[in-house]
Amino acid sequence: MKKVILGLALVIVIAIAGSVYYLFSNLDTLVEAAIEKYGSEATQTSVLVDGVKIDLTDGAAGISGLTIGNPADYGFANAFSLGKIRLGIDLQSLQEEPYIINEITVLAPQVFVEINKDNKTNLNELKNNLTAGSSGKAKDKKSQAPAGKEPRLKIRRIKFADGTIQAKVAALKNKEYRLKLPGLDMSNLGGSKGATASEIASEIVKRLTDHASNVVKKDIIDAELNKLKAQAQKKIDEEKAKLKEKSKSKLEAEKDKIIDKLPNLFGK
Questions:
Q1: Which spans in 57-163 are helix H?
Q2: pLDDT of 106-121, one tens digit each?
Q3: Cα(145)–Cα(20) distance, rounded to whole angstroms?
Q4: What's the predicted TM-score (pTM) here?
Q5: Residues in Cβ contact with 21 at an 8 Å cutoff, skipping those fewer than 6 apart
Q6: Cα 68–181–229 angle (5° rounding)?
């Protein structure tokens, strides 16, 4: 009987060890699948990842080729392409919530901005999707029986570097522009108590969207308006000059007529 119990215990230990080994040996794949699944649900677009590499020993992680698809009815394939992402994890914080990520660095992000013929912007629609998804989840949680709560996170710093913007505006004949995305730093995301991943993602997308939209407004919309104003002013100035010249010529003609009549007035 003792041998049977010992044998059963050994099988259980081996099974647990095998499960732990499977978890850690497949952690990268599991995280990649989670990003694509929950990211797609939150944004209501296609979220894809080329690869994930996690090193829990050093508290480091890397994500490559993360793309967030454009909402429907827009020309660009993606709204964001985030290049390479590096994360530094506070391993001590993994013992209790909120879990802390020391720093996230996003290298060579690409933001695709599109303003359609109805003056709607793809990035604003993406923000609305995230907001709708968060509020929808909140309603579901209230209507359902209590379940495991979503873990809370804190991000001490996130920075975007060496980014670019590709933009096109329907009102400007869909001409494509390529602009530099100035560096963007965010800090203390989640506050002292932390926030859910969806809440933090919404905040990051909102700030990045506003940042990119300001660049597009300044470097494209305002610049094109200034060009149109300059062209209009030039035309006005030219018309004024023509009118002035015409008036001057008319005055000169009238003056010549008067001069011609002057001798007659004196009987000459």
A1: 122-143
A2: 999 999 999 998 989 9
A3: 30
A4: 0.75
A5: none
A6: 115
